[in-house]
Amino acid sequence: MAVKLDGKALSRKMESELLIRSQAIIDKTGVKPVLATVLVGDDPSSAIYVNMKGRACKRVGIKSRKVLLPNDSTTENVLDKIDELNNDDSVFGILLQHPVPKQIDERACFDKIALSKDVDGVTSLGFGKMTMGEEVFSCATPGGIMKMLEHYDIPLEGKDAVVVGRSPILGKPMAMMLLNKNATVTICHSRTKNLSDIISRADIIVGAVGIKEFIKGDWIKNGAVLIDAGYHQGGFGDIEIDKAIDKCSAYTPVPGGVGPMTIATLISQTIKSAEMKLL
């Protein structure tokens, strides 16, 4: 029977530990760490995610500061706000909610975030350091996935891992993190030829392509580990899990798998940022 990699349960366990750590910071310094989230525009899905992160901050005893910018903001407006937060000593983590309106240079805005406050792991410098094996805050979603794999004792060394998706904040860093753990990694995407053949050989499959049930159940070999980082209306992911669940060895549910671990990792890294500066 396949093991369910329960991100919701693990994130709650992490939050219990994070509450103790945040309280220790407050007791020793009198400072309550702040995670600032910059939301540009009025995208309803983004607003939901920001509110979820705010509730998570409250559960672990830190502050959440929501910074709202209008939909017609320019790149310069966002850069100025991020610079202001970089220079605010009460802020220990900065998150720019993705996606931003099309007129904004998202990469320039990500890279404006100070490395010490890049708790969502989105800067080019942070990605480069992570790739080279240096200590740095990880991209939150792949970082959360790695925590989950470690918690459930999923072996990575020497395993054939396929990451389907190449986004700069999910697919690419996910591949590098697996490579750093000595997995043999193949990066695929929506235009990869003979994708079914590549996936059929994989011990570990990460669905991060953003297309509903793009990875078919009959492509997956017996005993594979399925990590689904997608979410689509109705509780579907990027992997056709209902046709693979009987032959995989472990899987992440959608929802309740990768999503909660993303938020828990973001909060954990904010607290770590505060500990590094205050303790």
Describe this structure in words.
The protein is globular. With 279 residues, it is of the alpha/beta class. The mean pLDDT is 97. The strands form two sheets. A six-stranded parallel sheet has the order 1-9-8-7-5-6. Helix 7 (171-180) links the parallel strand 5 and strand 6. It has two domains: 30-116, Leucine Dehydrogenase, chain A, domain 1 (Rossmann fold, 3-Layer(aba) Sandwich), CATH 3.40.50.10860; 140-259, Rossmann fold, CATH 3.40.50.720. The longest helix has 23 residues, at 7-29. The chain has helices at residues 7-29, 44-59, 75-86, 106-112, 124-131, 140-151, 171-180, 195-200, 258-278, and strands at 3-4, 34-40, 63-69, 91-96, 160-164, 184-188, 204-207, 225-228, 250-251. The protein has nine helices and nine strands.
Mean pLDDT rating: 97
Total strands: the figure is 9
Give the overall shape.
globular
Tell me the strand percentage band: 15-25%
**CATH class category label of the largest domain:** Alpha Beta
Domains counted in the coordinates: how many? Answer: 2
Gap between N and C termini: 45 Å
- In what order do the strands lie side by side in the largest sheet? 1-9-8-7-5-6
Q: What structural class do you assign from the helix and strand content? A: alpha/beta
CATH architecture of the largest domain: 3-Layer(aba) Sandwich
- What string, H for helix and E for strand, traces the elements in order? EHEHEHEHHHEHEHEEEH
Number of helices: 9
Would you identify the regions where 5 or more consecutive residues have pLDDT less than 50?
none
